[in-house]
Amino acid sequence: MADYLRDDEDAFGTPKHGDIVDGIVVRVDADEVLVDIGSKAEGVISGKELGFRGEDTDLHPGQTIKVFVLQPENEEGNVVLSLRRARAETTWLTAAEKQEAGEVLEAEVREQNKGGLIVNVLGLRGFLPSSQVARMFAGNLEQLVGQRIPTKILEVNRKRNRLIVSQKAAEDEDRARKREDLFSRMKVGDSVRGAVSGLTSYGAFVDIGGADGLIHISELSWDRVSRVTDVVQLGDEVEVKVIKLDPDQNRISLSLRQLQQDPWERLVSTVPVGTLVQGAVTKTKKYGAFLQIMPGIEGLLHISELSWDHVERTEDVLKVGEEIEVKVIGIDTARRRISLSLKQLSNAPAGQTNRTSERSTWDFDEEDDS
User: Fold this and answer.
1) pLDDT band (50, 70, 90) for residue 319
2) Distance (Å, whole) CA 189 – CA 209
3) pLDDT digit string (tens) for 248-287?
4) CA dist 218 → 56, 155, 229, 230, 279 (Å)
5) Which domains are seen in the chain, by residue range?
6) Is 282 helix (H, G, I), strand (E, B) or coil?
7) pLDDT tens for residues 289-301?
8) Are 126 and 107 in contact (CB under 8 A)?
9) How far is 128 from 150, CA to CA, in rounded Å?
């Protein structure tokens, strides 16, 4: 890259190879252009550069241009100048400035090679490594040839004619801007639409327009969810509720279930204590079994409420997946707990009292849940 720019006569002094200076066109001939560069000797541009590769070289007397010093003095005592090199060197300087400023620049994809893509940025030949292509792009790189894509400059090395760019970095810049915009206008309680962009064992990420929010597995449904893919798939369009915003950590918490009716609201109004309901056994424990009696609602059938006879193990009476009829014997709305009984569907044997056991209503916090 040129060592420095010269903008006026006082600063110029003796021209040196590699200088880029301002000059004024004095005369335009068929074979050369005479330029006043403020030194004792005038400079000349070879006529070979006129019309070079279709560039705009329609010069006229009095025009101010930047020129590159190829030779401080030729046989005639003139400074040999290049308009083309000045433009090229200035472009490299501009590229360095754009890199420093972190600007996003449009690049035209010219061709594909083994390691990535050849692009045109600011008129310079640049390289886009395959590792720096957009994160979501999963096709063949050949599909990008001929397209214009946003990029950021990662490296400028004029001596090696090396210009490295990244589409991924430009994408991150755009997402950061969109994320900042989202945090400025979004608030807790808003309903937003987005596409499922990632799946993990603990939840699903949703792209809500420039930023990803997380639906924790516990917020996917009122039902118990074992696997995230039982509820959503990659690419699904979903409407979600914003339940938490943390701008400092760039975190957005979302909920799918909170846009659905709370099943407990329906339970309280339709299933009072004493109601007989159908339930499916979802799991068994040493202290009893859990039954799903409606979507999003599980109740506890304590081991003491399985039979009027003594039951040693829950599995001796019930199996996971089995459907049975049970009686609702207790509802704790505040703690969202419902207690069930199987034995109370029949009369108590002689000598036994038909009443709810003291151990039948979720009173097992101190027990081993292994």
Assistant:
1) very high
2) 17
3) 888 999 999 999 888 887 787 788 899 999 999 999 999 9
4) 64, 45, 13, 13, 22
5) 5-89 (2.40.50.140), 102-171 (2.40.50.140), 188-259 (2.40.50.140), 271-345 (2.40.50.140)
6) strand
7) 999 998 888 999 9
8) yes
9) 11
The amino acid that residue 283 corresponds to is: K
H helix runs in the chain, sequence order = 9-12, 83-101, 167-185, 263-270
**CB atoms near residue 47 (< 10 Å):** 14
Taking CB atoms within 8 Å and a gap of at least 24, the contacts of 185-192 are 186/242, 186/245, 186/252, 187/242, 187/245, 188/242, 188/243, 188/244, 188/245, 189/241, 189/242, 190/241, 190/242, 191/239, 191/240, 191/241, 191/242, 191/259, 192/239, 192/240, 192/242, 192/254
Whether 345 contacts 306, CB under 8 Å: no
CA distance 64 to 22: 7
What backbone torsions phi and psi does residue 353 show, to the nearest 5 degrees?
-95, 130
Structure tokens at 146: 């001929």
pTM: 0.52
Q: Which of 91, 90, 80 shows the shortest CA–CA distance to 48? A: 80
Q: Are 129 and 167 in contact (CB under 8 A)?
A: no
- 326/298 Cα distance (integer angstroms): 12
